[in-house]
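Can anyone check this?
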Amino acid sequence: MRKKINLVINGIIYSVILLFISQLIETFIDYKIHPNLYATYSAPWYLGILIKGFVALFAIITAFIVKLIVKKFI
């Protein structure tokens, strides 16, 4: 049972990491293609990446905490 839970949690962690990396690449390419569009914003072009990065970090830390709880109690 613990192996299955560990496998699911690892899948969630890797999915969050890959999703963040793909959004990072997409935003950077879009910035390089349309720099004038991002110049009109009051926030820097990488602000969306920072917000998504904090959300991804929170999800990964939460998954590791769940992983530790499962390891301790199961």
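Reply from J.R.: I decoded it. The longest helix spans residues 2-33.
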